[in-house]
Amino acid sequence: MPKPTLLEQQLRAHPLVRGLPAGDAAKLLAHAEAVEFERGTVIFSMGEPAETFFLVRTGVVALNVQTEGGASRKIEAIAEGTVLGWSWLFPPFEWQFDAVAETLVRGIAIDAGALRQEFETDPAFAYRLVSRIAEVMAKRLYATRRQVLNLVE
Predict the structure, then answer these.
(1) Quick one: 52 exposed, middle or buried, by C-beta within 10 A (0-12, 13-18, 19+)?
(2) In a domain, 1, yes or no
(3) I want to staple 20 with a disulfide (CB 3.0 to 4.6 A). Which of 24, 80, 107, 135 is the partner?
(4) pLDDT tens digit sequence for 59-85
(5) Count of domains for the chain
(6) CATH of the domain at 104
């Protein structure tokens, strides 16, 4: 059996992937590449096509929204060990926020279009992966709810 590549080791070590069946990790790996974003880099912008999602390995990414006046307002920080982006899961497959590297960010980019095609041929794989992403979404929505309640109080 060949020695796993560095990318494969990093992918399998990420909390989203850890514990998935080997075949699921292999499907992710087939559409993955290592990425690095310098501080201040715009990773994606609201309204752009969401054709990639990211496993953040190191660093911090700010999620920003545009206010009515055109200013950018940070609503959340995404840190290492989590997932960046889930707009690729839902039509119209466009980013709902801006993502900007607050620090040097290293991660793994996964081709979401190719992954959606994998979902069509392997619904069990889709269920396992989307269930894990849904857990991340639920935690973030709960955290956002707490923030809103703190603003109201």
Answers:
(1) buried
(2) no
(3) 24
(4) 999 999 887 887 888 888 999 999 999
(5) 1
(6) 2.60.120.10
Question: In sequence order, what are the beta bridge partners of 101?
Answer: 61
Q: Identify each DSSP E strand in the chain by its residue range.
A: 32-37, 42-44, 52-58, 60-66, 72-79, 83-84, 98-101, 105-111
Residue 86 lies in a domain: yes
* 64: its two tokens: 């920003």
Orientation angle between helical segments 22-29 and 112-121, nearest 10 degrees: 140
DSSP state of 102: S
Looking at the whole model, is its pTM more than 0.85?
yes
The alpha carbon of residue 2 and the mean position of all alpha carbons in its chain are separated, in whole angstroms, by 29
What is the chain's pLDDT, residue by residue, as a tens digit (153 residues)? 678 899 999 999 999 999 999 999 999 999 999 999 999 999 999 999 999 999 999 999 999 988 788 788 888 899 999 999 989 999 999 999 999 999 999 999 999 999 999 999 999 999 999 999 998 888 877 766 666 666 555
Helix, strand or coil, per DSSP, at residue 108:
strand
DSSP state of 86: -
Q: What is the DSSP code (8-state) at residue 109?
A: E
Q: How far apart are CA 7 and CA 122, in angstroms?
A: 23
Instruction: Classify residue 52: in a domain, yes or no.
Output: yes
